[in-house]
Design brief:
Order of helices and strands: HHH
Number of helices: 3
Shape: elongated
Helix content: over 70%
Strand content: under 5%
Amino acid sequence: MSGATAATPPGGADPHGPQDERSLGDIVGSITGEFSTLVRQEIALAKAEATQDAKTAGKGVGMLAGAGVAGHLFLIALSALVVIALGGLIGYGWSALIVTVVWAVIAAVLASAGRKELRQIPPPLEKTQQSLKEDAQWLKNRNS
């Protein structure tokens, strides 16, 4: 029989792969270091994505603000046009009063609807406060 043992196949290759000569502490240290690097890389990626998203959101908000200003100017011009158009028929004073009253009614309806919607929002952290009260009560009963 040649120098090969029964556990080592011909050619001398170990069937279980190369043996790692590192200690358990070295392996754990290596894994910890790699994990820390991975976490830092993920945090850097998240920061980069958040920065890009914030820039995109900022552009979108700026465009919406511009659209709001343009819409407001449009309504002012439209209101002036209606006042002029009605002014030739019923007088400029009356037409201005009618347009003003129409806008006041629209504002009142929108304000009322908005207030109604806002009243439906529960107080901040209401569920959390209730849960904390229940937890405190449970602890009192358990310790009694």
